[in-house]
What we know:
Layout: H1 2-10, H2 15-22, H3 28-33, E1 46-51, H4 61-73, E2 79-84, H5 88-99, H6 104-126, H7 142-149, E3 151-155, H8 177-188, E4 192-197, E5 202-203, E6 215-216, E7 218-220, H9 221-227, H10 236-243, E8 250-255, H11 261-266, E9 273-276
Helix pairs in contact: 5-6
Amino acid sequence: MKNTILCENNTLLSELGKSLVTGSLSDERVLAETGREPAIKILPNAHVIKIGGQSFIDRGRSAVFPLIEEIVENLGHHEMIIGSGGGTRARHAYSVGLDLGLPNGVLSVLGTFVSMQNARMINYLLANYGIPFIEPAQFGQLAHYLKERGAVVFFGMPPYTFWHKNPSVGRIPPFRTDTGTYLVSEVFGTKSMIFVKDEEGLYTADPKKDRNAKFIKKISVAELKAMDLQDVVVERSVLDLMENAQNRRSIRVINGLERGNLTRALNGEDVGTLIYAD
Length: 278
Protein backbone atom coordinates (compact mmCIF):
# COMPACT_ATOMS: atom_id res chain seq x y z
CA MET A 1 0.00 0.00 0.00
CA LYS A 2 2.81 2.39 0.94
CA ASN A 3 4.65 1.74 -2.34
CA THR A 4 1.45 2.35 -4.32
CA ILE A 5 0.88 5.73 -2.69
CA LEU A 6 4.51 6.70 -3.33
CA CYS A 7 4.20 5.73 -6.98
CA GLU A 8 1.01 7.73 -7.41
CA ASN A 9 2.54 10.79 -5.77
CA ASN A 10 5.60 10.55 -7.98
CA THR A 11 3.47 11.55 -10.97
CA LEU A 12 3.03 14.95 -9.28
CA LEU A 13 6.74 15.45 -8.62
CA SER A 14 9.36 17.18 -10.76
CA GLU A 15 12.37 15.23 -11.93
CA LEU A 16 14.31 16.70 -9.00
CA GLY A 17 11.52 15.70 -6.63
CA LYS A 18 11.63 12.12 -7.88
CA SER A 19 15.40 12.03 -7.46
CA LEU A 20 15.10 13.26 -3.87
CA VAL A 21 12.36 10.76 -3.00
CA THR A 22 13.97 7.74 -4.61
CA GLY A 23 17.68 8.60 -4.44
CA SER A 24 20.29 9.18 -1.78
CA LEU A 25 20.84 12.57 -0.17
CA SER A 26 24.57 11.86 -0.27
CA ASP A 27 24.53 11.48 -4.06
CA GLU A 28 26.59 14.39 -5.42
CA ARG A 29 24.62 14.45 -8.69
CA VAL A 30 21.35 14.82 -6.82
CA LEU A 31 22.84 17.46 -4.51
CA ALA A 32 24.08 19.46 -7.49
CA GLU A 33 20.55 19.50 -8.93
CA THR A 34 19.19 21.05 -5.71
CA GLY A 35 21.26 24.18 -6.32
CA ARG A 36 19.78 25.01 -9.72
CA GLU A 37 17.05 27.30 -8.39
CA PRO A 38 18.49 30.37 -6.63
CA ALA A 39 17.47 30.99 -3.03
CA ILE A 40 14.97 33.83 -2.66
CA LYS A 41 15.78 36.92 -0.61
CA ILE A 42 13.18 36.85 2.16
CA LEU A 43 14.03 40.27 3.66
CA PRO A 44 15.88 42.13 0.87
CA ASN A 45 15.36 45.57 2.44
CA ALA A 46 16.65 44.73 5.91
CA HIS A 47 20.16 45.24 7.29
CA VAL A 48 21.80 42.97 9.85
CA ILE A 49 23.94 44.90 12.35
CA LYS A 50 26.27 43.06 14.70
CA ILE A 51 27.39 45.12 17.73
CA GLY A 52 30.68 43.77 19.03
CA GLY A 53 30.84 42.55 22.61
CA GLN A 54 34.41 43.11 23.74
CA SER A 55 35.11 45.69 21.04
CA PHE A 56 32.02 47.80 21.71
CA ILE A 57 29.40 46.86 24.34
CA ASP A 58 32.06 46.33 27.03
CA ARG A 59 33.05 49.99 26.61
CA GLY A 60 29.79 50.93 28.31
CA ARG A 61 27.84 54.17 28.13
CA SER A 62 30.36 56.30 26.23
CA ALA A 63 30.30 53.93 23.26
CA VAL A 64 26.83 52.40 23.43
CA PHE A 65 24.63 55.47 24.00
CA PRO A 66 25.70 57.37 20.86
CA LEU A 67 25.20 54.20 18.79
CA ILE A 68 21.72 53.72 20.28
CA GLU A 69 20.90 57.31 19.33
CA GLU A 70 22.08 56.67 15.77
CA ILE A 71 19.97 53.50 15.54
CA VAL A 72 16.93 55.49 16.68
CA GLU A 73 17.64 58.17 14.08
CA ASN A 74 17.51 55.49 11.37
CA LEU A 75 14.16 54.06 12.46
CA GLY A 76 11.68 54.64 9.66
CA HIS A 77 14.50 54.88 7.12
CA HIS A 78 16.04 51.41 7.40
CA GLU A 79 14.90 48.01 8.69
CA MET A 80 17.49 46.76 11.20
CA ILE A 81 18.11 43.31 12.66
CA ILE A 82 20.52 43.94 15.55
CA GLY A 83 22.70 41.16 16.96
CA SER A 84 24.97 41.28 20.01
CA GLY A 85 28.39 39.88 20.79
CA GLY A 86 29.48 38.15 23.99
CA GLY A 87 32.58 40.10 24.92
CA THR A 88 34.89 39.80 27.89
CA ARG A 89 32.38 38.03 30.11
CA ALA A 90 32.02 35.24 27.53
CA ARG A 91 35.81 34.85 27.46
CA HIS A 92 35.85 34.61 31.23
CA ALA A 93 33.13 31.94 31.11
CA TYR A 94 35.16 30.02 28.51
CA SER A 95 38.30 30.21 30.66
CA VAL A 96 36.53 28.84 33.74
CA GLY A 97 34.75 26.17 31.70
CA LEU A 98 38.01 25.08 30.09
CA ASP A 99 39.69 24.89 33.48
CA LEU A 100 36.86 22.62 34.63
CA GLY A 101 37.28 20.41 31.56
CA LEU A 102 33.88 21.18 30.04
CA PRO A 103 33.40 20.13 26.39
CA ASN A 104 32.92 22.45 23.43
CA GLY A 105 29.12 22.11 23.36
CA VAL A 106 28.78 23.17 27.00
CA LEU A 107 31.08 26.15 26.41
CA SER A 108 28.75 27.14 23.57
CA VAL A 109 25.85 27.20 26.03
CA LEU A 110 27.80 29.48 28.38
CA GLY A 111 28.68 31.84 25.54
CA THR A 112 25.06 31.92 24.42
CA PHE A 113 23.81 33.24 27.75
CA VAL A 114 26.41 36.02 27.87
CA SER A 115 25.46 37.11 24.36
CA MET A 116 21.82 37.05 25.47
CA GLN A 117 22.62 39.35 28.42
CA ASN A 118 24.17 41.90 26.06
CA ALA A 119 21.19 41.65 23.71
CA ARG A 120 18.85 42.26 26.63
CA MET A 121 20.75 45.41 27.59
CA ILE A 122 20.55 46.74 24.02
CA ASN A 123 16.86 45.83 24.00
CA TYR A 124 16.16 47.74 27.22
CA LEU A 125 17.92 50.82 25.84
CA LEU A 126 15.64 50.66 22.79
CA ALA A 127 12.49 49.64 24.69
CA ASN A 128 11.02 53.16 24.70
CA TYR A 129 10.83 52.93 20.90
CA GLY A 130 9.04 49.59 20.94
CA ILE A 131 11.98 47.58 19.61
CA PRO A 132 11.50 43.93 20.64
CA PHE A 133 13.98 41.27 21.72
CA ILE A 134 13.51 37.96 19.93
CA GLU A 135 14.87 34.47 20.53
CA PRO A 136 15.46 31.82 17.83
CA ALA A 137 11.95 30.39 18.28
CA GLN A 138 10.48 33.80 17.36
CA PHE A 139 12.29 34.25 14.05
CA GLY A 140 9.13 33.17 12.28
CA GLN A 141 7.65 36.52 13.35
CA LEU A 142 10.75 38.53 12.35
CA ALA A 143 9.16 40.07 9.25
CA HIS A 144 6.13 41.20 11.27
CA TYR A 145 8.30 42.88 13.92
CA LEU A 146 10.36 44.67 11.25
CA LYS A 147 7.30 46.04 9.48
CA GLU A 148 5.70 47.10 12.78
CA ARG A 149 8.69 48.54 14.65
CA GLY A 150 11.48 48.88 12.08
CA ALA A 151 14.04 46.91 14.10
CA VAL A 152 14.54 43.87 16.33
CA VAL A 153 17.29 42.78 18.73
CA PHE A 154 18.58 39.21 19.03
CA PHE A 155 21.59 37.50 20.58
CA GLY A 156 24.28 36.74 18.04
CA MET A 157 25.32 33.28 19.24
CA PRO A 158 23.91 30.63 16.88
CA PRO A 159 21.69 28.14 18.75
CA TYR A 160 23.92 25.10 18.22
CA THR A 161 24.57 24.81 22.00
CA PHE A 162 25.29 21.12 22.76
CA TRP A 163 25.30 20.33 19.03
CA HIS A 164 28.15 22.76 18.28
CA LYS A 165 30.78 21.45 15.87
CA ASN A 166 34.15 20.77 17.48
CA PRO A 167 36.97 23.05 16.29
CA SER A 168 40.03 21.62 14.56
CA VAL A 169 42.21 23.03 17.36
CA GLY A 170 41.31 23.31 21.05
CA ARG A 171 37.78 23.55 22.48
CA ILE A 172 36.63 27.17 21.99
CA PRO A 173 33.34 27.10 19.99
CA PRO A 174 34.27 28.13 16.42
CA PHE A 175 30.81 29.42 15.49
CA ARG A 176 30.21 32.35 17.79
CA THR A 177 28.38 35.68 17.56
CA ASP A 178 29.94 36.94 14.31
CA THR A 179 28.88 33.69 12.67
CA GLY A 180 25.38 33.72 14.12
CA THR A 181 24.59 37.23 12.91
CA TYR A 182 26.15 36.54 9.51
CA LEU A 183 23.99 33.44 9.05
CA VAL A 184 20.84 35.51 9.71
CA SER A 185 21.87 37.85 6.88
CA GLU A 186 22.64 34.92 4.56
CA VAL A 187 19.44 32.98 5.25
CA PHE A 188 17.09 35.97 5.03
CA GLY A 189 18.90 37.52 2.06
CA THR A 190 19.22 40.93 3.69
CA LYS A 191 20.50 44.07 2.00
CA SER A 192 23.73 44.20 3.99
CA MET A 193 25.72 42.72 6.87
CA ILE A 194 27.44 45.36 9.02
CA PHE A 195 29.87 44.55 11.84
CA VAL A 196 30.20 47.41 14.34
CA LYS A 197 33.65 47.39 15.96
CA ASP A 198 35.96 49.90 17.69
CA GLU A 199 38.42 50.13 14.77
CA GLU A 200 38.10 51.45 11.22
CA GLY A 201 37.87 47.92 9.87
CA LEU A 202 40.36 45.23 8.88
CA TYR A 203 44.09 45.71 9.48
CA THR A 204 47.15 43.59 8.75
CA ALA A 205 47.53 43.20 12.53
CA ASP A 206 45.76 44.32 15.69
CA PRO A 207 46.21 48.14 15.57
CA LYS A 208 45.89 48.31 19.36
CA LYS A 209 49.06 46.20 19.69
CA ASP A 210 50.97 46.95 16.49
CA ARG A 211 51.49 50.60 15.50
CA ASN A 212 52.67 49.47 12.05
CA ALA A 213 49.42 47.70 11.24
CA LYS A 214 48.08 48.77 7.84
CA PHE A 215 44.41 49.42 7.14
CA ILE A 216 42.78 47.31 4.39
CA LYS A 217 39.93 49.09 2.61
CA LYS A 218 38.69 46.23 0.41
CA ILE A 219 39.71 42.60 0.05
CA SER A 220 38.37 39.27 -1.17
CA VAL A 221 38.03 36.23 1.07
CA ALA A 222 40.58 34.36 -1.03
CA GLU A 223 43.11 37.19 -0.74
CA LEU A 224 42.52 37.51 2.99
CA LYS A 225 43.01 33.79 3.56
CA ALA A 226 46.19 33.84 1.48
CA MET A 227 47.61 36.56 3.75
CA ASP A 228 47.22 34.18 6.72
CA LEU A 229 46.97 37.01 9.23
CA GLN A 230 47.38 36.17 12.90
CA ASP A 231 44.51 38.49 13.83
CA VAL A 232 41.34 38.90 11.75
CA VAL A 233 38.58 41.39 12.55
CA VAL A 234 35.80 38.77 12.23
CA GLU A 235 35.59 35.09 13.10
CA ARG A 236 37.35 32.94 10.50
CA SER A 237 34.27 30.74 10.24
CA VAL A 238 32.45 33.71 8.65
CA LEU A 239 35.03 33.74 5.86
CA ASP A 240 34.51 30.00 5.31
CA LEU A 241 30.75 30.43 5.13
CA MET A 242 31.02 33.32 2.66
CA GLU A 243 32.74 31.07 0.11
CA ASN A 244 29.58 28.98 -0.32
CA ALA A 245 27.03 31.72 0.37
CA GLN A 246 24.09 32.25 -1.96
CA ASN A 247 22.81 35.59 -0.66
CA ARG A 248 25.38 37.26 1.59
CA ARG A 249 28.58 37.42 -0.45
CA SER A 250 30.02 40.48 1.28
CA ILE A 251 30.30 42.00 4.74
CA ARG A 252 31.26 45.49 5.93
CA VAL A 253 33.24 46.27 9.09
CA ILE A 254 32.94 49.80 10.49
CA ASN A 255 34.10 51.87 13.43
CA GLY A 256 30.96 52.49 15.48
CA LEU A 257 32.78 54.92 17.77
CA GLU A 258 32.75 57.47 14.96
CA ARG A 259 29.30 59.03 14.89
CA GLY A 260 27.59 58.72 11.52
CA ASN A 261 29.48 55.65 10.28
CA LEU A 262 26.51 53.36 10.89
CA THR A 263 24.20 55.70 8.98
CA ARG A 264 26.66 55.90 6.10
CA ALA A 265 26.93 52.11 5.97
CA LEU A 266 23.13 51.73 6.03
CA ASN A 267 22.95 54.21 3.15
CA GLY A 268 25.34 52.07 1.15
CA GLU A 269 28.33 54.38 1.38
CA ASP A 270 31.87 53.01 1.18
CA VAL A 271 32.85 53.26 4.84
CA GLY A 272 35.15 50.93 6.78
CA THR A 273 36.33 47.68 5.20
CA LEU A 274 34.50 45.61 2.61
CA ILE A 275 35.26 41.87 2.57
CA TYR A 276 33.72 39.99 -0.33
CA ALA A 277 33.65 36.48 -1.75
CA ASP A 278 35.07 36.01 -5.25
